[in-house]
């Protein structure tokens, strides 16, 4: 698996950097979005289920996840990973002074399981050459603009 990246110039954030200096940083770019319908079709092809069955199961998973996350459970989905709800708060000196308005916005944390951890280990990177605006590609196809995918 290879991830596409481009280089972007941003301010140098190092402590010893000269004021106004900039460095090039890599930015990973997703080129396509896998739509839900296509995802369900791909899962159906790999199993004995129909597309409607896949959608029904995913909808059921989401319904159970919503219910159990609201109850504070950690949801373990095998090799996929775990989901849990977390929320920090502002601190107070005395326990009696604390109330629920001190909580920050709740977040859902995902911890990848064995399969996704392995996917991360196997990744490679490939430079994505974008054609500058106004330049035409040398061999057919449409014009590509920086930042547009």
Automatic annotation (TrEMBL):
Which Pfam families does the record cross-reference, listed alphabetically? HU-HIG (PF18291)
Domain HU, chain residue ranges per copy: 1-126
Q: Which superkingdom does the taxonomy of this entry point to?
A: Bacteria
Q: Sorted alphabetically, which InterPro entries does this protein's record hold? A: HU-HIG (IPR041607), HU_DNA-bd_put (IPR005902), IHF-like_DNA-bd_dom_sf (IPR010992)
The protein's GO terms of the molecular function aspect are: DNA binding
Which keywords does this chain's UniProt record carry? Answer: DNA-binding
Please state what the protein is called.
Answer: HU domain-containing protein
* Organism from which the protein derives: Parabacteroides merdae
